[in-house]
Amino acid sequence: MAFRGSTDTLHKPDNGNFLKEVELMAKFDPVMKQHVSRVESGPGSHVHYLGKTIQNELIDSISSKIIEHIVTEIKISKYFSIILDCTPDLSHKEQLSVIVRIVSQEDIPQVKEHFLGFLVAAQSTGEHLSSLILKRLEELNIPFEDCRGQSYDNGANMKGKNKGVQAKLLQLNSRAFYVPCGAHTLNLVVADAAKSSPDALGYFGHLTKLFKLFSASTQRWDVLLKYAKITLKSWAETRWESRVKSIEAVRYQAGQIREALLEVREKTADPVVRVEAQSLAEEIGSYRFCICTAIWYDILCKIQHVSKLMQSPSMQLDVAVNLLKKTRDSLTSYRNTGFSDAQTIAKEMCEEMNVEAELKQKRLRTTKTHFGYESPDEPIQDALRKLETTFFYVVVDTAISSLDERFQNLGEVNNTFGVLLDFPNLAEEDLLQKCQTLSTALTHDSQLDIDGIELAREMQNFPPLPSKNMTNMELLTFLHVKKLAEMYPNMWVALRISATLPVTVAAAERSFSKLKLIKTYLRSTMMQERLSGLAIISINHVVSNQLSYDDVVDDFASRKCRKVKL
To answer: Dmax of the chain from CA atoms?
Structure first.
């Protein structure tokens, strides 16, 4: 909400929401009415507390109380992880969003992610960004020694092994495990698959042309709405989910969109638009396009569900790894039967459009080649077989290999903490070895979080579990409900640290949405302190609702107290 207007004078039509609220309260509250009358009695005769400086001090007072509450909760939880991400704002400043993830121990253990504000990043280097976050933690009196996890996007300045933020922080605290963002990684997996084949790039190029043709004219968009119930969507490089939405309209109503294109071709007077509509209508009605539509829609739907789940603030490391394994198994299974299923779907789409379900055989090009000892591959004569080899297998195999490569780091961290859930099935020697490995990983400068030998003994004497396939948080809740935390201290600490590790930076991405709502085009000159304070109040609204108004008023009064000479 925009508090300020074009003027700071009462009873003006453009004085902003803050002063309008004061005027409204003055009509019903006698104290406010008396205060407003004194302000209106003459300039300088009374301190009115209605200017922009007072607004900023009120925002700072409320946000400071929220930060104090969050810092207290972090210190009670002890272990925390940091989530960072950057984005430019409307004034062309690089804003660094700082999120802290903890496992709260109030009633029942639960994962919480708190927003600590925006920081202006003058440089995008790993050294500068790491110094910013360390300075912020020092200002809030949060010891970095208690940090056990860090998660960023896939930028080289963040995840770089030598000069990235994660490398700089690991030098100071080797227990701050780096976990790559799962949602960004899935996005890159899809991007790698989309770039793996010329047919894949050409397919998304046709979708882009299709959207631009209808969206460039209100008349053509009305023609589209007359035939199609699901409107066309554009897709963006940074939001892979938009690709699913852009394909969905073509997947389920290809015939309707083709009819709309044919009507546009008949009604338009522009020859360029007529040719474009005719070309797209022929493309949508082709058997090749229908097969590509079915394949891409199936692949993206398999990944979309997993990405949605991984964006949850309560997502845990073990659950994320299991979801990714299922996704890989699903893609592997789809590789065996996906192309035949896509042909069946494509034939149904062609029947609805009354077109032949047949691939056009392209003439093979003959080119001169230099002499080589290796014989060239024999050209594939069958068009359907060629599409399966050069498009389907390439896209699916690229997605699977990219998934294995990009989630290697995530799997290594999960293997380190895997003993916390696999201990009932391990032999005594393996259990002791894995517990020692976990204890070593949680050691920095001869400071131990857990004792590996004691952890192995606790696991050997652990009570029967209510379920075989328990998640990290379910096991942690089991210890809390049964009041076994003091009896199994190493197990309790290790589970809390494991639950603290983040697997996505979705919380930082959500803070960027709030940034765009607060710092708009008309408020592009907003000061950094005001921006960060408003964002803290808005994003941490659950914490702000728990604050006492009296404490905020007392804090504001202590800031404004004056010594009056008698």
So the answer is: 104
